[in-house]
Specification:
The chain is mostly helical. The chain has helices at 2-9, 14-24, 29-46, 49-65, 69-85, 89-106, 109-126, 129-145, 149-166, 172-188, 192-204, 212-228, 232-249, 256-268, 272-289, 296-309, 313-325, 343-346, 350-360, 365-415, 430-444, 455-462, 466-476, 481-499, 508-514, 520-531, 535-544. Helix 5 (69-85) runs antiparallel to helix 6 (89-106), helix 16 (296-309) runs antiparallel to helix 17 and helix 19 (350-360) runs antiparallel to helix 20.
Amino acid sequence: MLYAQSDSLAHKSYEYLDSLYLKYRYNNPKKANLYADELYTKAQATEDDRQIGQALHRKAFIAYKLGNYENAFMHIENSISIAKKIKNDSLELKNESLTGNVYLAKGDYNNAINQYIQAKKVARRIGNINDFLLSDHNIGMIKKQTKDINEAIEIFLANLEAVNTYKDVNLERLEVISLVALSDTYLRIKNVTKAEEYTTKGLQKSSLKKFKDAYLILSANNVIINYQKKLYQSSIQKAYSLLKPMYDYSSEKSITTLYLYLGKNYLKLEQCDSVIKYFEKIKVITAKEDFEFPELEEVYHILGTCEARLGNTEKSIEYHNLSAQFDEINDSTNTVINNELHRKNDIIPLKEKIESLDDYGQEQKSRATLWYSISAILILSLLLFFFLYRKKQLQTKKRFQELLQTIDTLEQSKTESQPLKTTASVITDENVLGILEGLKAFEQKEYYLRQDCTLIFVAKKLKTNTTYLSNVINTYKEKSFKSYLTELRINAALIRLKNEPKLRAYTIKAIAEEFGFKRQETFSKAFKAKTNMLPSKYIKSLKINNIEN
């Protein structure tokens, strides 16, 4: 069916295909991707640089919407190259803005802000008010993510005022996404009245046919607003109505927040079977999709509570242990739809949970004995766990203090002029000396932070071959090239995370990429091997000890 549709599109004009792309780019990115591919094929056939550059931008935008960030960057780079070649300022601006969006989606806030500032300069130069304001909007989104809430609200309100001043039909979408941003931001600070005001305004200006993405986010916000207003049945009904359109528009990731609030509503209604049903779905999705969901700690805690109420003691202990051990940066800024949670209101204390177990046991003496036994087991298990947890905390604190001393030594070595460090007392081979000097320059210029930094890359930089370079590093650095490269990257991460508080707001994946690692797992494994501490634990320790430079 897909091939038949593609064949039928081959006979359509570039302009017609572009109109279809524009129609579906927000409401149905998967469908728009088909038109973007056909646009690019047709543009290549005509060898029209303007059309090729535009088609590449279209492909980049859809790759970004579908979460294919590396493809997005590749298409953007090619499109910008053509834009500069044909001096198309408008196309260059669109690509600058889109680059910022991709960095923002990846959690790389520094690069995102720099891109938006660059986009603002281009927009001001060519008099494009929409993209100028849109860049401000995106900076506001970063302010919101990093919890600079007041400044974020000021930016969104200023944009709404500008929209009303200019009264330009091209600013209609900016108005809607400003309302979405205000709705979400006020939810974050638990101002339900303001959140509901802007949610209502946004829903009046959007629908499943017009600004579908904004409409779905606002509708999800309504689920949370009803929950916060204790309208639990209404919140449940709204969540059910959103499950299919949310899934059809995006993926299973997008419905985890709906499952979260279905579970939280059912918890309030004391329907533990339903709570477990939806929270188990969250477990499956987060495991299958492999993405960060900060509310997993709360999910495990509530699962433990419900399993205890249902008499499933082993599962209850398992989930409470998972909740206590859950290792994350507690920065509720990355839920898929909306992130405002109310843990204090929903998590039932252990004492209350045990009392509820005891209440259930009053009907029969034999059941009472059973529940008291379960309670005793829970208490003993938790006491043992907290003893071990406290012991682990003290060990972590000791490791952290030792690590800070190591970092001080690393920082001092970077500021002082260091002689070549080798295992040999005298180097007589001029080629070896040249390579070691080259490696010193390589370290000073921080080429090792590039993701494409390989043995071949370094050998080319030093104008030697890989075999000789590898032998020199093995002999004079006493480690393999891979170990040498990893050590440089981890040392850089230790120093910059200590000295740059804003960097700590990044996701672990974004931090890994910042220091040259392609995969989060590789970075975390190398970091722990070097420091005996996970990156998230190190960041938490920096925050707890108020390490601010």
